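Incident log, support desk, overnight shift.

02:14 A customer reports that sequence design results differ from what the structure should imply. Their input is reproduced verbatim below. On-call engineer (initials T.W.) acknowledged and began investigating.
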């Protein structure tokens, strides 16, 4: 299954995009800073997983992508 990473995915617009990604038949990874994920409550949304990532920090991005790939996913999209 293809995987789409949605930056800012724990927020309102980001989560709406995640839901649309899932409706289109893909797995969505909501990538966001820890505080946003905590504010979202990490609520379980079918087809959406959460990962901590700071888009202003290259090491954070590399670590998040490596984790997604290590879990056996192929990243096919980025929002």
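02:41 Re-run completed on a clean worker. Output:
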């Amino acid at each position: 299954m293809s995987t789409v990473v949605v930056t800012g995915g724990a927020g309102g617009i980001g989560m709406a995009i995640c839901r649309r990604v899932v409706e289109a038949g893909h797995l969505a990874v909501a990538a966001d800073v820890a505080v946003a994920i905590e504010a979202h409550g990490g609520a379980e949304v079918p087809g959406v997983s959460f990962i901590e990532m700071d888009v202003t920090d290259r090491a954070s991005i590399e670590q998040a992508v490596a984790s997604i790939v290590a879990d056996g996913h192929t990243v096919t999209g980025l929002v």
